[in-house]
């Protein structure tokens, strides 16, 4: 029998009625002949509430205890989900991450999945149960509870789909699918029928909160077909899959804005081998995820080095850099936390010219200053002042006609 993984996000299980509705969907899939594994998130804003509770007792809570606390949100949902299914006459059993051996490293609050035990799940599926697994959480080798980072239930679901060799992983959420940009920030955005792993990976890494970026890495690596769709209706959503030739024809598929970034610059670092290695080794040691790195030679013996990271890591990153300052002979350190990064993404960029020009012109016409620019093969990102961020996203989306379906763009 084929396995189907269905993931329900926070808004899709926010109250009793929504849990019953989601349970009904899982039951329907079981009736269609699938072995169904549900992955559920914490209800509504439960994770935010738990974070607020933690900060109330300690403004700087230990990360291990944070994970211990946050994992309870998902644990509530899965038991309620199983109860709802039992109430419909369907055998159901819930598991925490630890109970199914969702093994992770020990990076609390941003742990990475290392392996998943599937025996317990298969045993229950073969006995006719629907299995409900708590998303977002795992356990390290020492038995400590870990969490995968905000939005991490997507990753639990796709990783499970890979481990169980599921036919598909359905991501039920509060939007109809993946849009050309976040519809809350660019209301004219349109839904895409399909998108490649590479594109959604870039979009997710650049702030499109619709999918947790690690989930796409799993999807691509293990060929999991992902269907992002609404939990409120039956309409077809967006299929995330390998690239097909017609995707090449689309100049830009989507645009994002990221506001939770900070930038640290090291001015006049000695221009000699090993300095960048030293800086980034120390940042890695402190478990800081670095995004864009820019280094430029300013003279034969000096260079400027800057990088972006999550605003939440800024305090730790600053401490690391301050400790390094004399080692790399850096004249000054500058820090900015009033920035936004606007990005455009599309596999079509590989074969089309003029994308950068169009982007820079749209920003220039709107009188938005560009602080720095970074690119990959399929994306261009500009850092702008935070105050200009929303305007920048709108003019960029308009310039690339992200308010129109692909076949109606010029
Ligand atoms: P869930 O709780 O179901 O995981 P999320 O809030 O994590 O839901 O993700 C869904 C939200 O992602 C949407 O409500 C939307 O505002 C946001 N989003 C950001 N970028 C996009 C995009 N490109 N397409 C669709 N939704 C997006
Ligand atoms: N409940 C977690 C969060 O709010 C994980 C998730 O929803 O995917 O971030
Ligand atoms: Mg989410």
Brief summary of the model shown:
33% of the residues lie in helices and 26% in strands. By secondary structure, it is of the alpha/beta class. Aspartic acid (ASP) binds next to loops.
- Mean pLDDT across all amino acids: 96
Task: Name the CATH architecture of the domain at 3-174.
Answer: 3-Layer(aba) Sandwich
Query: How are the strands of the largest sheet arranged?
Result: 3-6-2-1-9-11-12-10
Count of extended strands? 20
In quaternary terms, these chains amount to single chain
Radius of gyration: 22 Å
CATH class of the domain at 3-174: Alpha Beta
Look up the CATH topology of the domain at 3-174.
Answer: Carbamate kinase
Between the first and last Cα atoms, what is the distance in angstroms?
A: 46 Å
The structure class reads alpha/beta
The molecules bound to the chains, other than polymers, are: adenosine-5'-diphosphate, aspartic acid, magnesium ion
Largest sheet: 8 strands, mixed
Q: Which regions have little confidence, pLDDT < 50, spanning 5+ residues? A: none
Helicity level, as a percent range? 25-40%
Description of the molecule:
By secondary structure, this protein is of the alpha/beta class. 33% of the residues lie in helices and 26% in strands. The protein has a domain at 3-174: Acetylglutamate kinase-like (Carbamate kinase, 3-Layer(aba) Sandwich). The strands form 5 sheets. The protein has an 8-stranded mixed β-sheet with strand order 3-6-2-1-9-11-12-10, sandwiched between helices. Strands 13-18-20-19 form a 4-stranded antiparallel β-sheet. Bound molecules: adenosine-5'-diphosphate (ADP), aspartic acid and magnesium ion. Residues 9-12, 41, 151, 173-175, 178-179, 181-184, 208-210, 254 line the site of adenosine-5'-diphosphate (ADP).
């Amino acid at each position: 029998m084929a396995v189907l993984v269905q993931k329900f996000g926070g808004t899709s299980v926010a109250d009793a009625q929504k849990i019953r509705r989601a349970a009904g969907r899982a039951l329907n899939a079981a009736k269609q002949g699938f072995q169904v594994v549900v992955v559920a998130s914490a209800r509504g804003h439960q994770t935010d509430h738990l974070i607020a509770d933690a900060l109330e007792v300690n403004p700087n809570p230990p990360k291990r205890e944070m994970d211990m606390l946050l994992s309870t949100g998902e644990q509530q949902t899965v038991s309620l989900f199983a109860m709802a299914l039992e109430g419909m006459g369907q055998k159901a059993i819930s598991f925490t991450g630890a109970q199914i051996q969702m093994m992770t490293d020990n990076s609390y609050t941003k742990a990475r999945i290392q392996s998943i035990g599937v025996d317990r799940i298969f045993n229950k599926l073969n006995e006719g149960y629907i299995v409900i697994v708590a998303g977002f959480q795992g356990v390290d080798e020492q038995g400590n509870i870990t969490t995968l980072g905000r939005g991490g239930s997507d990753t639990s679901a796709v990783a499970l789909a890979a481990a169980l060799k599921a036919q598909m992983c359905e991501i039920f959420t509060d939007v109809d699918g993946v849009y050309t940009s976040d519809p809350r920030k660019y209301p004219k955005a349109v839904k895409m029928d399909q998108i490649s792993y590479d594109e959604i990976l870039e979009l997710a890494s650049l702030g499109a909160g619709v999918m947790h970026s690690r989930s796409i890495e799993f999807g691509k690596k293990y060929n999991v077909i992902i269907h992002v769709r609404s939990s409120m209706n039956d309409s077809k959503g967006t299929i995330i899959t390998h690239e097909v030739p017609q995707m090449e024809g689309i100049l830009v598929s989507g645009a994002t804005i990221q506001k939770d970034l900070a930038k640290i610059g090291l001015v006049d670092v000695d221009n000699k081998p090993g300095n960048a290695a030293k800086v980034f080794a120390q940042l890695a040691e402190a478990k800081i995820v670095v995004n864009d790195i820019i280094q430029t030679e300013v003279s034969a013996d000096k260079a400027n080095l800057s990088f972006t990271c999550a605003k939440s890591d800024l305090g730790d990153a600053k401490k690391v850099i301050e400790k390094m300052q004399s080692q790399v002979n850096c004249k000054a350190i500058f820090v900015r936390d009033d920035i936004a990064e606007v990005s455009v993404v599309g596999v079509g960029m590989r074969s089309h010219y003029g994308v950068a020009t169009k982007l820079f012109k749209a920003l220039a016409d709107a009188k938005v200053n560009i602080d720095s620019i970074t690119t990959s093969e399929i994306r261009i990102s500009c850092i702008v002042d935070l105050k200009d961020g929303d305007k920048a996203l709108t003019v960029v989306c308009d310039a690339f006609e992200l308010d129109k379906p692909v076949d109606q763009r010029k």
